[in-house]
Amino acid sequence: MRKVCILRLGHRPERDQRVTTHVGLTARALGANGMYLAANDIGIVTSIGDVVERWGGNFFVENDVKWKKCIREWKERGGIVAHLTMYGLEVGEVVAAVRERPEDLLIIVGAEKVPGDVYGMVDYNVSVTNQPHSEISSLAVFLDRLFMGREIEQDFPDAKIRVEPCKVGKRVIEL
Ligand code: SAM
User: Fold this and answer.
1) How far apart are CA 140 and CA 103, in angstroms?
2) Does domain 4-174 fall into CATH 3.30.420.140?
């Protein structure tokens, strides 16, 4: 099974903590293996690590990566790279091609303006509509299209707790 990881660009510790945490949690919940953070913010590693500890799975966060090096090394190891941007080709046009490739996949999302070099370094610039919205929503739609909805049924090994779905109220089981 190939690896799917996120590279989070442009994180500003003073204002993006919540959004970046949600990028990581969305990635984890929807089938990705880990997130590289192109900024130094150990708080993100800790908060997502706490979720992994309780809710299971092997999702990793690597703090303070150099983004160009991260992309270069990913490609040197044989991986491919997709960048989510409202300026890219429509997701419906490219996702089947991405899905059929067996290589590990790195998905880049930005915060504010993404450096122009990124567009030329990647294999696919992909839009989820050509309207401005968010890194969380575009990542969620892209992963769901990539995995064709099957990620919803994944198991999270070594979980300490899990939700027992119910029609009304909340039921959480200690395992
Ligand atoms: N103005 C910024 C730019 O030009 O890169 C966009 C910032 S947006 C708030 C943050 C991130 O959300 C983008 O870097 C991109 O990864 C993602 N994003 C926003 N709208 C998108 C769309 N329609 N399709 C794909 N990704 C999108």
Assistant:
1) 20
2) no
